[in-house]
Amino acid sequence: MDLFSQTDLFSTDEIRKTTFDLPGADVTLFENFFSSEESNRFYNSLLQNTIWEQDQMTIYGKQVNLPRLTAWYGDSKTDSSYSDKKRKMLPWNADLLFIKERIEKEVDIQFTRCLLNYYRDGKDSVDWHQDYEESRRKNTVIGSVTFGATRPFQLKHATRKDLKRISIPLAHGSLLVMQGATQDNWKHKIPKTTKKILPRINLTFRWIK
Ligand SMILES: O=C(O)CCC(=O)C(=O)O
Ligand SMILES: [Mn+2]
Fold first, then answer.
1. What is the reported pLDDT for 97?
2. Is residue 88 pLDDT above 80, yes or no?
3. Mean of the pLDDT values across residues 43-66?
4. Looking at the domain assignment, is residue 159 inside a domain?
5. Domain annotation covers residue 176
6. Is 189 part of any domain?
7. What is d(CA 14, CA 106) in angstroms, rounded to the nearest whole number?
8. Which domain holds residue 107?
C-alpha cells in the first residue's frame, strides 16, 4: 500500500533529525525514522491487530466518548492503573517490541508502556494536555511514533504567554522525542481538521513503573 509514501521528487528515505529551540523543553524530530516500507507494514498491521477501545471521559458530570480510539500495551509486571482509572493493559506484541527497541537506541531509557491512538479522520483529535500525572512529570521521556496521515502536533508553554506556539507536522514513519522538563513546561495537542484526510496511528512510548 502506497497511500502515505512521499511523492516529492527530491524526498529520500534518509533519517532527518531536527531539534527545536524551546525554553524549558527538549524536543527532537526524526523524519523517516522508519522507512516507508516499514511504515506501511506497521500501519496495516497495527490497524488490524490492535485491540482498539472506545474510552470515555467525564465532562460536566456526563460520560462522553474520547474523539479517538486508544489501547495500552506494556510490560506485564507493571500494574495497569493510570490516571486514577483502571485501564486494561495488554502485553507487548512483536510489532511494538520491534518499534520500542529501535527507539531505545536513541534514548537512555527502556520504556515500560505504550499508549496507541487511532485518529479515524479529521474529527478525531486530542486536546491540550501534558503527559504523565503532575507528580511524575519531572525528567520524563516520551517516544512518539506516527504511521498514516500527517497531522500537526502543536506545542504551547503551560504558563508563559509571551512564547509563540509551534506546530510540528508528524509524518508517516516519524519519531518525536520529548525529554527532560518538556512535560512540566509545555502542553501539546492534535487539533481537529475539516480537511479530508486518511487515518493516523500514533504510539507514545512511556516509562511508568
Ligand atoms: O497523536 C499524537 O501525536 C499525540 C498523542 C498524545 O499526545 C497522547 O496520547 O498523549
Ligand atoms: Mn500527550
1. 98
2. no
3. 96
4. yes
5. yes
6. yes
7. 16
8. 16-75+89-206
pTM: 0.92
DSSP string, 166-203: EEEEE-TT-EEEEETTHHHHEEEEE----S----EEEE
Q: 3-state DSSP helix/strand/coil percent for the chain, to nearest 5? A: 15, 40, 45
131 C-beta closer than 6 A to ligand 1 = yes
Give residue 8's pLDDT: 57
The answer to whether the beta carbons of residues 73 and 208 sit under 8 Å apart is: no
CATH of the domain at 56: 2.60.120.590
Q: Report how far ligand 2's centroid is from the alpha carbon of 87 (Å).
A: 17
Q: Closest residue (by CA) to atom 3 of ligand 1?
A: 202
Residue 126 CA to ligand 1 centre (angstroms): 7
Classified as helix, coil or strand, 6 is coil
Structural domain contains residue 33:
yes
Contact 81, 87 (CB under 8 A): yes
What average pLDDT score do residues 83-101 get? 84
* pLDDT tens, position by position, 125-183: 999 999 998 888 888 999 999 999 999 999 999 999 999 999 999 999 999 999 999 99
Question: Which ligand is in closest contact with the Cα of 204?
Answer: 1
